[in-house]
User: What shape does this take?
Amino acid sequence: MTRKRLLIHSVFLILLPVFVAWLGLGLPAAITLVLLLLLWRWLIVLSGIVVPEKTAVLELETTPASHYVEKVRWCMDRLGVEYKERACGGTLGVFFSGRSVPLLRIRTGLVRTNIGNSPEILRYLWGNYYASHGERAEFLAPTAERLELEQKLDRYGRNLQVWIYYHLLHDRDLTTRVWGANNPLVPPWQRQALRLLFPVLAALIRYSFAINKEHYAKSVLHIEELLNNIDTQLADGRQSILGGNTINFSAVGSPPNWSDLESGRQPGTYDAYCKFLRLTQVTNIAQVIAGHSVEPMDIETPVRHLDATMAMIALTDKIFRIYSLGRDRVLDVLEMVRILFGVDERELANESRVFTMINSNSPLQYDTPMLWGMIELARCRQPVMITPFTLAGAMAPVTLAGALTLQNAEALAGLAFVQMVGPGTPMMYGGFTSNVDMKSGSPAFGTPEYVKATLIGGQLARRYRVPYRSSNVNASNAPDVQSAYESQMSIWASVLGHANFVHHGLGWLEGGLCASFEKFIIDAEMLQGMAEVLRPVSVSAADLAVDAIEAVGPGGHFFGSPHTMERYETAFYQPMLSDWRNFESWEEAGAVDTTHRAHRIYKQLLDGYEQPPLDTAVKEELEAFVSRRKEEGGAPMQ
Assistant: This one.
């Protein structure tokens, strides 16, 4: 009732100049009328305080056919809060009151509060209901990953509006129906206003949304890009793209040497680096390129980032990492990313396209080049992974608890710095705490201490509600049994610690000093097997196989049963490296051990590599940029 009275009062206030002019009133009379209207408004407000309206605690003001409304309504329904919904005519809110629905009206005692726009409403629901609803409200936690996804879907919504209005605005009746002109829940005056004001509203929409052929085509491309991206993420059977339990693996990053059985241990070269890129491209379990799989040390340092980035773009189509080794280098690569995706600086900040990893210089220090990388990546909202390099007994206290205390302090300092520079920047908590060999001082990996530190690091990351990064590491000097069992310890720790990103997933040897082609294949086998372990077991009626068990009966076998014959080709994980033949068959085939089989497989995979397509104009623009920056001297160390 108070709201209706205030609406009537507002109408009289708007018509006041008309009455004054029509009646020919002088200044004293006009002032008296204004004072009377102010007194009237005060009495309306006072009556609302003395006799409060029996209104809902939460009232959601909605408009038809709005994905923003659907987002808020779905979240409130899932949260289980009681609310009243009030329908309004679409588009009227934007042009008459300067806001867009949904609008959440909140009554707290005598206080009335309005929150407009869906992101702000969701933040309110999280902050107000998490304490009382606990895990039921967990889906609203504003993690960096969820905020990024929400921004993507909101941009999708804007592109979708362009697509719809491009086809819809020519049909007056259909458009007004979509706006709610025939919806009995929309107030009658709004339904009439939608019909009468259609030419004005349509013209404003065409102008505001730039409804034209060029903008329409661009919006369609953005919609298709987002949907294809989501299809790719859901292709493995997952039901969510938010990544709470999603795990991604990258190839090894940054070792100065490489090795295989033929060449032995060699210094890093551009040729070897490109071979690792091709191998990463054809290996599905290697989902990310987290740096140079081996440093191309035959390229001068000031221009290495240019050639290395160009190779990542040309030879793969996977997301890659920016090295934070000084501001100029970061800006160079960001410009190449901008060219690659065909976006300007503002659009670059709207979506995660690359990422960086930051290692603190333990204890308690961040180097200047790393800080510049954090600053520039945060300014354009690209994900930043903060990973302290805390080796217990060397750069960290010898006790595991002390080393983790240092890791946590350094990680939180880095994450806080990133948010100070760019609030809302996606970020990840990295754990890399291990121990040293107290006899030699060499780093040790895949140890019991590393496993415990990885598990605890995951608990800390979940406590702070940020994604978690771990690593698949070992300290072996060859792709042998030691490298396998230490890596298996690391992989299990990463999985049980709920790591979202496993760096150095394929190819790491010598505590990170060497990238091995054979170890790359051995790791791929282990990671593919782990991915299969994480696949849920199907328990459908056919999978329970009660009829097949009955048909075979006691003492029979299932080799030739129809149930087996229908499924035998896909029933079990098929390894690419393991040899499951008996000893005689294996010996007759040459008695080839695992490392030599891995050598043969990596060669075969490289032979079958196909370079992904790259738009010719984009490639030429990238090459021109690289050439110009080389002529300018590149980017020396900062």
Q: What stands out?
A: Residues 89 and 190 are 6 Å apart (CA to CA).
